[in-house]
Specification:
single chain; 700 residues; alpha/beta; Rossmann fold; 3 domains; 7-stranded mixed sheet; 24 helices; disordered N terminus
Length: 700
């Protein structure tokens, strides 16, 4: 695997260009005869370009399917020096745009000159412009260093970033937190984000035996390192065999002076391939991911966890910021600001624990942060931008307000399918410059699943051929595994619902323990494909399962019948009063993953309370005070909320309408109390990738 990293680095090392940009062509990877030709415009070939664009698309470049060309501010400075914003430089820039023969333009963190020329060129050529951003570049703080602060807060650069955020067809954000931050800053654009922004694989196994070295890497992040520094000092004092290394542009703190040559400073390695190779060679046992609790850090990405994990290093990270999801389930040690000593001492003195943590993290790295999953996501972002560009380029200049019109749900589905199978389609017709649109999502193997097998009733009696036919009859978006490891259902798409669903879900076990569901009536709100419905029926409950999508109701009926259960299932749009009025009165409600998709959650809960005699299990995202950006009134009372954009009817994991309202947790508790539910038992409250989420048992 290290050879693969080196190969990428060697390719990138060839992109520096000649001294005079007027005498060279744009640096390029791949052939201009490729069906897709990306022009990447950036300040330089920075790590974000390498990790988030080049790395996931490299296989397609090598196969002749994509060409990537680079146009950078660094080239302008080499060729024109202090006149890099002058007329001659502008002429050269426009010539390079024209020579690129690009089918799409990707502006990656760009804040240099001639941004408007790039956007105008894209519009004139009817091609997409995608802006890629992985930091809040509108609010770069002084804590990251005076030079970076001055650079990013230069008024020209700020104006360029804001211009590109507002004028690009799609803004591709590294995570949803950043997209929300930009929305709050007044950016009105079609945002795109996914579950990952950079990818990795296990380059080497963790070192066995005694823990010898811990380290921290950073670039002008002294304020972050200070969070963990006191604990590092105490650890080194208590463990004389340990060494500590600082990698990057960070000053050696005076507090480490007493340890003399036990502390090693490693210089900056600008090229990413050389950096990753060097990091692997250091064989760190423990890697630090401390973060100061600043707004800027709240929207950063998890690159450090990926890099540490790839080279076999155990991660200790700040809790409640950005690392909670990747470190969950033993894949990292999350700490509050006063808990660093315990974590570092435990990993330093228990090599078996450290080894198991890294092994778990590397499994997650391979499963959730693979290059193939990131490739699919990048292609989806590009396709989304292309579809929006195609539509908006047809709009007359006199109607610029149409540029931000919401993409239709039909286009979203086509976009997702096209992005997921684009590579295979082009391989089938390499002579075509038009990307074919496939109509079938990615899938997984039919059998061989060893985890989460469940006794599956009549499914167990089906032949392989019949079960395969059953899997093809309906648009399944998740699957279970029978006792022979065979798949019943399908994945949603690559990277989504790729493993067998657990039956019963732990939350149903908690609900049954608390409420004793046998013989009681239970309403399941949002049955999806019947996985939870089965488990509720197995508890002996009389289940009524509803969903707003007819296809989900049909899949629930089919799955439950094959498992030997006959719940009452029907279509119900719980946002509509007439549909709520048709629901039966029940003892309990199982309400998971639905409330945060509703445009009027207050009215829904009031209607629900009228038909619920005893209690409910509620699992939902909610808003924290700093997320609030709007308010609405119900029955004369005002409720503040976070406006969350939804994708509508055709996106199966989205709400039915154009937005949802995420309420404050305290407001939810108060409302439920007012509705007669006085007992509130919090089972889980955590920060997830998409925002804060809780699970609670609530009773009268």
């Amino acid at each position: 695997m290290l050879a693969d990293v080196k190969q990428l680095g060697r390719k990138l090392l060839g992109l520096s260009g000649a001294a005079n940009p007027t005498a060279i062509s744009i640096e390029r990877m791949g052939s201009r005869s490729a069906a897709r030709r990306l022009l990447v415009i950036a300040n330089s070939v920075i790590p974000t370009v390498q990790l988030s664009i080049v790395q996931p698309l490299r296989e397609l470049v090598d196969d002749g399917l994509i060409c990537i060309e680079f146009l950078t501010e660094e080239q302008l400075k080499r060729g024109f020096g202090g006149a890099a914003r002058g007329k001659e430089a502008a002429t050269w820039f426009k010539q390079r745009l024209a020579q690129s023969s690009a089918t799409e333009i990707v502006l990656c963190r760009y804040s240099g000159p001639f941004a408007s020329e790039a956007i105008e060129f894209a519009r004139a050529q009817s091609i997409a412009a995608l802006y890629v951003i992985d930091d809040d570049l509108l609010n770069v703080p002084w804590e990251i260093g005076q030079a970076k602060f001055d650079y990013h807060n230069n008024p020209r650069r700020l104006n360029t970033v804001r211009y590109l955020l507002n004028e690009s067809d799609v803004v591709y954000c590294s995570n949803e937190r950043l997209a929300r931050r930009l929305e709050q800053a007044g950016i009105v654009r079609d945002f795109f984000f996914g579950p990952l922004f950079c990818a990795g694989s296990a380059l080497q196994a963790p070192r066995e035996g005694q823990t010898l070295t811990l380290g921290y890497m950073g670039f002008d992040h002294d304020h972050d390192f200070k969070v963990a520094l006191p604990a590092v000092v105490r650890l080194l004092r208590n463990n004389p065999h340990l060494n500590f290394e600082l990698f990057g542009k960070i000053a050696r703190p005076l507090e480490l002076a007493e340890f003399a040559n036990r502390v090693i400073e490693l210089p900056v390695v600008p090229n990413y391939e050389a950096f990753l190779t060097s990091l692997a060679s250091r064989r760190w046992d423990i890697g630090l991911c401390p973060l100061a609790r600043t707004p800027f850090n709240e929207v950063k990405n998890i690159n450090k966890w990926i890099e540490y994990t790839a080279v076999g290093t155990a991660v200790v990270a700040t809790r409640g910021m950005i690392y909670d999801d990747c470190c969950a389930d033993g894949c990292g040690w999350l700490v509050n600001d006063g808990e660093w000593d315990e974590a570092l001492q435990a990993l330093a003195t228990d090599p078996v624990r450290r080894l198991r943590q890294v092994q778990a993290a590397q499994r997650r790295l391979e499963e959730d942060y693979s290059v193939s999953a990131l490739r699919t996501q990048v292609l989806e972002a590009l396709t989304r931008a292309a579809m929006i560009a195609k539509r908006t380029r047809c709009v007359k200049a006199a109607q610029p307000q149409s540029h931000g019109k919401k993409i239709t749900t039909q286009e979203q589905n086509v976009m997702k399918l096209e992005a997921m199978s684009w590579k295979a389609d082009v391989r089938n017709d390499r002579s075509s410059n038009v990307v074919a649109k496939a109509r079938e999502p990615a899938s997984v193997g039919f059998d061989g699943f060893t985890q989460h097998q469940v006794q599956s009733g009549y499914v167990e009696l089906l032949s392989d051929e019949d079960l395969k036919r059953l899997n093809e009859l309906l648009p399944w978006m998740c699957f279970t595994s029978d006792t022979r490891g065979r798949r019943f259902g399908n994945i949603a798409w690559k990277g989504k619902r790729e493993t067998p669903q657990i039956v019963p879900d732990a939350r149903i076990g908690q609900m049954d323990t608390a409420f004793r569901l046998k013989g009681r009536s239970v309403l399941e709100v949002g049955c999806f494909e019947g996985v939870h419905t089965i488990a509720l029926a197995q508890c002996g409950a009389d289940v009524t399962a509803v969903d707003s999508r007819i296809e989900n109701v049909v899949k629930t009926i089919v799955r439950c019948n094959f498992f030997g259960h006959r719940p009452t299932c029907f279509v119900s749009d719980i946002e509509k009063g007439e549909d709520m009025a048709r629901l039966p009165k029940v003892d309990f409600v199982f309400h998971v993953g639905v409330l945060y998709h509703l445009q009027d959650p207050i009215t829904h809960l009031k209607r629900l309370a009228a038909i619920t005699s005893s209690g409910l299990l509620l699992d939902t995202h909610y808003a924290k005070p700093d997320m609030l950006n709007n308010a609405y009134q119900v029955d004369g009372k005002e409720y503040r909320y976070f406006h969350y954009r939804e994708k509508g009817r055709e996106e199966v994991f989205s709400g039915m309408y154009d937005h949802a309202k995420w309420l404050l947790l305290d407001d939810l508790k108060l409302l439920l109390t007012e509705l007669g539910f006085s007992k509130f038992q919090m089972l889980k409250d955590e920060q997830q990738r998409n925002g804060p989420r809780f699970t609670a048992l609530i009773a009268r």
